[in-house]
Amino acid sequence: MPVIKSVFKNVRVNERKRLINLKTKNSFKNEVKEIKQLLLAKKIAEAEKLLPKVYKVLDIAAKKHVIAANSAARKKSSLARQIAAAKK
């Protein structure tokens, strides 16, 4: 248990930030899962429509430092390649 007053505050702040980061991380994970399910179901047009939304969510997560910028770029590139491959 913390003894110093400022440490109590740090614990509260860390918990609040952890929940915000968790919400951001879950949102992009759910969007990526949704696109992958659409690709498995061969619904390529719907996946293409959802792609800008996924890009936005990944960019926000990278901007908030929830995930690394390169990680977001890699996920976006991977999804774009999967959609392009499914079109063929």
TrEMBL record:
Keywords per UniProt: Ribonucleoprotein, Ribosomal protein, RNA-binding, rRNA-binding
A GO term from the CC aspect: small ribosomal subunit
Name listed for the protein in its UniProt record: Small ribosomal subunit protein bS20
Gene Ontology MF terms: small ribosomal subunit rRNA binding; structural constituent of ribosome
Keyword Calcium: no
Gene Ontology annotations of biological process type: translation
Function summary: Binds directly to 16S ribosomal RNA.
Organism for this UniProt entry: Candidatus Abawacabacteria bacterium RBG_16_42_10
One family name in Pfam for this protein: Ribosomal_S20p
The keyword DNA damage is assigned to this record: no
Transmembrane region(s): none
Annotated family: Belongs to the bacterial ribosomal protein bS20 family.
Protein origin, superkingdom: Bacteria
